[in-house]
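re the bet — no i am not wrong, look at it urself. input seq straight from the record:
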Amino acid sequence: MTTMFLFANCAVLDAAQGRLLEGHHVLVEGNRIKEVSDRPLKATAARMIEGRGRTLMPGLCDAHVHVAAVSPDLAALTKWAPSYVTARTAEVLKGMLRRGFTTVRDAGGADYGLADAIAEGYLEGPRLLFSGPALSQTGGHGDQRGKGDNSTDYFCGCVGTLGRVCDGVDAVRRVARDELRKGATQIKIMASGGIASPTDHIANTQYSLEEITAIVEEATAARTYVMAHAYYPNAIRRAIECGVRSIEHGNFIDEPTARLMVQKQAFMVPTLSTYEALAREGVAMGFPPAFADKVQWVRGAALTGLETAHKAGVAIAYGTDLLGAMHRHQALEFTLRREVQTVAEVIQGATVNAAALFNRVGEVGVVAPGALADLLLVDGDPYRDITVLQRPEETFRVIMKDGAMVVDQA
């Protein structure tokens, strides 16, 4: 028998328009929203949930997570048994869903096994759009080997391995095809140096233009896209010119590069919360002290990069990139971005903009007929006080994913 819910007298959050629709009623049938109306709805078989004085909004989206990064020491993860990593990933996934994130895009480390386990109910967690391991050149950001390490662990990916090393056009085509074969919903590449890699500089460019183009061609052929880790304008520009759709981080972006992103209809996913968390508690949590200077470097440019992209009109999605126990700061991004964006714009990043990036417009990030029934019933008005989204234990009366109750305090 199909389960039905009727949310009555709610203020429905219209993320696209940045407004609340007062006195609305929303009928859920099965895992979809069947009807949204400004008039009372009749559904005798439905459980009625009174929403007066509360906001009904779409489940949140995080476009940059690493659910299998259960430790900030990424090199150590590759030495752990995949089964052990998976067991610890369960807590990360549950925490995300309980914070109201019903769809997340994994940027390296998760695989089809985790996605299937969530979809089939063996693990509690958000809908998982996974990349498999990120593709990295030898010595790139996804290569966690130190100078004296000649192991081959990084040439194949499994749960907990955030990067997969492959070099040359033929090799990157084969690896991209292999990850797509395993169900990757998008391909992630390392297009520049990064913080948590032992042998590269943040300003490095990585992969040749021919290699990036080949990866993009394979993703496009499979009707999906490529997301690229990149910090500096030269790395961002190379990726965008090769057809990459989504730039991760982008802290040092300049105005001409931001305008190019707008022209190419590319997205940017800043990740301010991870720099704050790493700066405050990263080393204490197990992040290698050798990378601490890199954290401060990119942290100082994070808001400037967001502001540059925002002023140019780049489509911006919500992302966090947190590691280990620092995943608990996932909602910190909402207030950090308020230094540059309006509340409405920040919420759009975690709803309609993310849905557009995921190629799931009308399916997630919206309260509308036909959308998946991913819903949050929240005490208060997020537009007036965005911190209500940072206190789920206090303010979330309902968390619904796919029409099923995750939290039910209505």
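see?? The two ends are 22 Å apart (CA to CA). told u. also The chain has 13 helices and 18 strands. so pay up
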